Amino acid sequence: MTLEKERREEAILLSLRKCDFLSREQLQKMHELGQTRNAQRVLGNMSEYLSYFTEERKKVYYLNAAGRERVQAEKVRKKTVQVNHFLMRNDLFIAKGKPSTWKNEVKISIPNSSLSLVADAVYTSNKLHHFVEVDYKQAMSQNTEKIKRYKELYTFNPQFVLVWVTTTPYRKKRLEALCEGLKCQVYLWDDIK
Hints:
The chain is an alpha/beta fold and 193 residues long. It is 44% helix and 26% strand. The chain contains 8 helices and 8 strands; from the N terminus they run αβααββααβββαβαβα. The strands form 2 sheets. It has a 5-stranded mixed beta sheet, sandwiched between helices. Strand 2 and strand 3 form a beta hairpin. Helix 2 packs across helix 3.
């Protein structure tokens, strides 16, 4: 195996460690794997480290035991019905230029307060924290409750941006209305894929 090929494999495995699940298309964008045929060849050659399943006619990859061992990944991932939630978050990660500060599933709490919530992801840009929330077929009442907690957080520290990814123009409008008073960005999944 050439050094370049080994580096590419390592980079792909590290991306999967960070993102949990990635579609072939996402891996193509992140690692410049070229056309579909080349990407399938590269990923096929890595089958010793990767597992995949098909979701809506897309191959979705994740680390198998050997892949986890090679990059010291602790989280064990298996096929899940929530895969689109992960893919939406990962498309935003790619669209935002793969921020080096990006962390998934981060608990946010205020000392001496009962306020606590878990953001789907967090990253820093222009010295501002960005809290990411993914809305994939989630009940709007759950989103409303989460936004209330972000508004409470805002009273303690207004130096953040709330970033949503959602699935329909209607849901986008609802989220924008609910987030009034917060620094907020709402993206449609189709626009960032």
